[in-house]
Amino acid sequence: MGAKAIQSLKPIKRIHAHLCAFHFYAHDMNRQVEAHHYCTHYNQDMRQCLIYDSPEKNARLIGVEYIVSEKLFQGLPDEEKKLWHTHEYEVKGGILFMPGVPKVAENKELDEVAKTYGKVFHFWQYDRGDALPLGLPQLMMSFTEDGQLNPNLASSVEKRFGVSFKENAEGRKHITGPSMGIHPSSNPWLKGIGLKPELREVDLKEKL
User: Which Pfam families has this protein been placed in (predicted)?
Assistant: First the structure.
């Protein structure tokens, strides 16, 4: 409490939005988790978000997501693009929402998000029961069509937050995705490419 009264905590105070969504492991779509994003506009073309497992005061910080504009994404190297996912379906499908925000304001914000790309790593695999953030960071992805999200997970969130994903989708039919269409290098799992970080030991010819 003393530190809170004295220190500015400026980066944290710049958080302007809370978005609830779902992520799955880039190498295993069956492992799906609820993800609460607390986001800051770093600049006009990028948001940076802290990811928690819930909106409660004792929530676990499980990851970080960077969200960039279509313009920034298009400028990335092709090898880098495969680490990123789209947000168009999350928004238009109704499964991404802003708890407690009126629909008009929510849709205005999400109209921008639908055109972006995200890169997210989770550090804490709480879905497998880990008591601490163990192992390597895990690359995560987002959903791209109906039928992918676990219905039990979906209904649990709808009930707890008093939302309807179907109604959300109905009210977002006017929203559009990236102006150039979804880049084929994003969402690599759609092409059967599962990505899982690995740590390898290699011999270096030169001393560090």
Answer: DUF1264
Dist CA 49 CA 18 (whole Å)? 9
Q: Where are the domains of the chain?
A: 16-175
37-71: pLDDT as tens digits:
999 999 999 999 999 999 999 999 999 999 999 99
The overall pTM is greater than 0.85: yes
Strand, helix or coil at 20?
strand
